[in-house]
Amino acid sequence: MKVASDWLARSMDMLRGGSAKKAESTTNRSMDQRASLRRGQEALPPRMLRRLMDDLQAASSEQLSEVEAAKHAQAIMQWYATASDAHRQELWQLMCEQFGPDAQRIQAARQQLEQAQDAAEMTQAEIALRKSLVSARTRLLQRFSVPEGGMRFLIDMRAQLLGLPKSDKRFVALDAELEHLFTNWFDVAFLELRKLTWDSPASLLEKLIEYEAVHDIRSWADLKNRVDSDRRCYGFFHPKLPHEPLIFVEVALVDKMSDAIAPLLDEHGARADLSKATTAIFYSISNTQSGLRGVSFGDSLIKRVVDDLLAEFPKLRHFATLSPIPGFRQWLLKQGDAVLAQWPAKQQAAMGKALGGTAPVQAAQLLQACENLQQWSTHHVLRKAIMACAAHYLVKGMDKGRPLDPVARFHLGNGARVERINWAADVSSKGIKQSLGLMVNYLYDLKRLDRHRASLAQGKVPASKEVEAWLKE
After folding, report:
1. 333 plus 417 within the same structural domain
2. Is residue 11 part of a domain?
3. If you write DSSP's letter for every residue of 104-167 in order, what string do you get?
4. Which of 46, 120, 161, 181 is least surrounded, with the fewest CB atoms within 10 Å of its CB?
5. Contact (Cβ atoms closer than 8 angstroms) between residue 150 and residue 73
6. Which of 229, 383, 393 is nearest to 327 (CA)?
């Protein structure tokens, strides 16, 4: 009876096509198996899989010319444009399973390199190894970049890959290959720096509004203010994407280091006198392509912009940012108790009194009190506490040798230093939510960039004496 009941259960399960075990088995089937027979919830029918496989093989073929192979790549792109997410994922799976590197060829080339007896043999072995590492998937992705819209297709595809849950590891190889190719294709040597002005094409200005990631552009008047005569806006462009910037930076030319964002965004504010401008403030840097994550060209953008500004305004002496601190509030909520516990008893008692309680003070209490932070005077004990915590976060907050805050990580990695923390610098709802209204100036001292990078590599964040003084409060 036991055997009969097991057989009956398996038969019913096959008819329903729905048990967890069945779902698992269909999910794990290779593309070779699925091209012959469709099962369960598999999205693409075998005929479509075989057709995609034929086009993919033709697009990656070494025997076909670039032009002929690109036609097959174009056919796949046209299919992809209307495909469902499930269908697209099965295409990705095909690319991962069927077009990877030839392990035997790599092993043979590696052995040849290890057994080389002289320089000539070593050179030939190295060439063979390099060629063996170029997989059919590499050629396939290169062929996709050839037809019109191909680069846009690849960037968008990687953005979709990056949008999957981190636990989904099925397409890691495809993502890694795309990132490697993008790193080469979007090298700064191939990028064009353009100044964007009010006279730029309207379609391009619309891209600035769409992609602005730091301070939302609220209107055309707001945008006009950001590209006005006392402002500069620059973007990096790639020949394959000539009508939209990959990254852009907004710059204000002023006579001193800015300590608040509102005056810079004020559409009705007076224009700065460019003859008195000594400081360039980078107040917004926006990456526009999520599919290019991991490809670094922001540091090169800043360097190129500095050179352009100095050519136009030789009197400029200081180059700094006015930057948000997006991770500060969450860090304070999670790690603040440990930081506050290290402070002297006298200071804790003063904070406890200001909060209407006693020591020890909890970070949650401090955050709750911040509803009234704009009313705190310069010497208010809670204001000093927030500033000291921010200094700790920016200077001491590290993870595996890298600054915790993403904006700090970018600018410090480019050789800047933490110059000044500004109170109530961004009192917008976003500014309060992210960083309790604080903003920070990162200073680009052109003579000390390499020294600052070296210091950071040793685990020490470069900071001014003013910021370091907050660590002693």
Report:
1. yes
2. no
3. HHHHHHHHHHHT--SHHHHHHHHHHHHHHTS-HHHHHHHHHTSSTTHHHHHHHHHHHHHTS-TT
4. 120
5. yes
6. 393
CA-angle at 337, arms to 336 and 339, nearest 5°: 65
Cα–Cα dist 58/101, whole Å: 17
Q: What are phi and psi of 65, to 5 degrees?
A: -70, 165
Q: Is residue 323 annotated as part of the catalytic site, yes or no?
A: yes
Integer Cα distance of 254 and 257 in angstroms: 7
pLDDT of residue 32: 61
Q: Is the pLDDT of residue 155 over 70?
A: yes
Give the residues across from 231 on adjacent strands.
252
- Boundary residue ending a domain (321, 353, 371): 321
Output the domain CATH number for residue 381: 3.40.630.150
With beta carbons less than 8 A apart as the criterion, state whether 407 and 324 touch: yes
Q: Report the C-alpha gap between 441 and 293 in whole angstroms.
A: 25
Q: What are phi and psi of 193, to 5 degrees?
A: -85, 125
Query: What's the domain range around 372?
Result: 328-470
Which of 287, 321, 355 delimits the end of a domain? 321
Residue type, 316: L
Better-scored residue on pLDDT, 49 or 31: 49
Whether 63 and 108 share a structural domain: yes
Q: 247 pairs with which residues across the strands? A: 236, 287
Q: Let me know: does 340 contact 359? Beta carbons within 8 Å.
A: no
If asked whether residues 267 and 175 sit together in one domain, one would say no
Q: Calculate what percentage of the chain has a pLDDT beyond 90.
A: 64
Over residues 313-349, the pLDDT tens digits come to 999 999 999 999 999 999 999 999 998 888 888 888 8
Is residue 333 within 8 Å of residue 367, measured between CB atoms? Answer: yes
8 is a domain residue:
no
* Catalytic entry in 323, 392, 435, 452: 323
DSSP assigned state of 18: -
Q: Are 181 and 134 in contact (CB under 8 A)?
A: no
* Pick from 176, 101, 87, 86: nearest CA to 137: 101
Is residue 363 a contact partner of residue 337, using CB atoms and an 8 Å limit? yes
Whole-number Å distance between alpha carbons of 314 and 253: 12
Number of structural domains (the chain) is: 3
What is the model's pTM? 0.84
pLDDT in tens, 75-116: 999 999 999 999 999 999 999 988 988 888 888 888 888 888
72, 411, 435, 452: the active-site residue: 411
**Residues 144, 59 contacting (CB under 8 angstroms):** yes
User: Do 34 and 178 belong together in one domain?
Assistant: yes
Q: What CATH number is associated with residue 42?
A: 1.20.140.90
Tell me, yes or no, whether 270 and 401 share the same domain: no
Per-residue pLDDT for 40 more than 60? no
